[in-house]
Design goal:
The chain is built from 12 helices and 12 strands. It has 344 residues and is an alpha/beta fold. It has 3 domains: 7-50, no CATH class; 62-163 and 302-328, Response regulator (Rossmann fold, 3-Layer(aba) Sandwich), CATH 3.40.50; 165-300 and 333-340, Rossmann fold, CATH 3.40.50. It is elongated, with a radius of gyration of 25 Å. The mean pLDDT is 90.
Length: 344
């Protein structure tokens, strides 16, 4: 049985009008602080739960936003989702979250389902396969606010939030160079999304600025859509790299998943880190400190990415700003540990 108290119950108990109670609960300037506190205290003590549907009908909104991500099976994505959830909860919005599993067709199906369900806006981290953004542009033109986060594209004009991938990759590669490594391999993922291309460009620029020639044989692009094949691909990539006439002294990996898998496969191949080959990678894993050896990482402000993306979307939904679309790139942080240190 539903025993939730209503606005009418609170109003009757405190001898106030329903409109006064409603305004007090939404922190209206029209209500005095003493009355606000009285209403809030009573509501809390009696476990009042706002009727989101009723409020949404009154405002002409569902007070829900759709979130489509590639997958939730890594720390980085989970942390971004936590940031989105925090901000939306603070502003009385609920999330409806779906996974594309890195498949473009599934991504489109997810978005269409969310749109049909009446979401007020969409946050999307595009799939590995996504190159066509026309379906999102069509939804934008029909009035649906859309914000991209983490993985960005120039093919759609909207608010976008991510990290400075170029600078993070540059700093990772420069760190290896500063530690005396000259032959540096790069493992990335084969997609046209900005995340991959900008990290590749940052790697190349750091080599160029240090007078090191770029060698395409030291770069391997992996398909990250399947965990089983990814293991095989990384194992093959490491074997091919180590068979080169000038084998790499160090490896810079471009994603969370590739970074941890690479360390695992180096161990499996009998290679010692960092004695035989040093390693640094983009990763937000909380286990970086306790891995053997501890893993040097480029850490991304994942919680802040999520919060900012949600903030940008809610600003579009509210329609209170006519500011032009902006792309926010947050700084990364290099965390140096044993895996990238020159062995003595």
């Amino acid at each position: 049985m539903n025993t939730n108290i209503t606005l009418r119950d609170i109003a009757k108990a405190l001898n106030l009008s329903i409109s006064t109670v409603s305004r007090a609960l939404t922190d209206s300037y029209q209500i005095g602080e003493k009355t606000k506190q009285e209403v809030l205290t009573y509501a809390k003590e009696h476990h009042y739960v706002p009727n989101r549907m009723a409020r949404g009908l009154k405002e002409g909104k569902s007070r829900s936003i759709g979130v489509v991500v590639c997958s939730i099976d890594n720390n980085f994505m989970a942390q971004m989702l936590d940031g989105i959830d925090q901000y939306c909860s603070e502003h009385d919005y609920q999330l409806i979250m779906m996974q594309s599993k890195e498949l473009f067709e599934q991504e489109k199906a997810n978005v269409n389902l969310l749109y049909a369900g009446g979401i007020d806006g969409l946050l999307i981290c595009p799939s590995y396969q996504t190159t066509d953004f026309s379906y999102l542009i069509n939804l934008q033109e029909s009035g649906l606010p859309v914000v991209l986060f983490d993985r960005l594209s120039d093919h759609i004009d909207t608010h976008k939030v991510a990290v400075d991938n170029f600078k993070g990759a540059y700093e990772a590669t420069q760190h290896l160079i500063n530690n005396g490594y000259r032959t540096i391999a790069h493992l990335n993922w084969n997609t046209q999304l900005s995340t991959a291309t900008e990290r590749f460009e940052g790697y190349k620029k750091a080599l160029k600025d240090s007078g090191i020639s770029f060698n395409k044989d030291l770069v391997k692009f992996c398909d990250t859509t399947n965990a089983v094949t990814l293991d095989d691909e990384i194992e093959t990539a490491i074997r091919e790299l180590m068979m080169l006439d000038e084998a790499p002294q160090a490896i810079f990996t471009a994603t969370d998943l590739i970074s941890t898998k690479c360390l695992e496969m180096l161990h499996k191949s009998g290679l010692r880190v960092p004695q035989d080959v040093a390693l640094i990678g983009f990763s937000n894993t909380d286990l970086a400190e306790v891995l053997n050896p501890s893993l040097s990482t480029i850490r991304q402000p994942s919680l802040e990415i999520g919060r900012l993306a949600a903030k940008q979307l809610l600003s579009l939904i509210s329609g209170k700003t006519n500011e032009p679309f902006e792309t926010i790139l947050l700084p990364t942080q290099i965390q140096v540990r044993a895996s990238s240190q020159k062995s003595k």
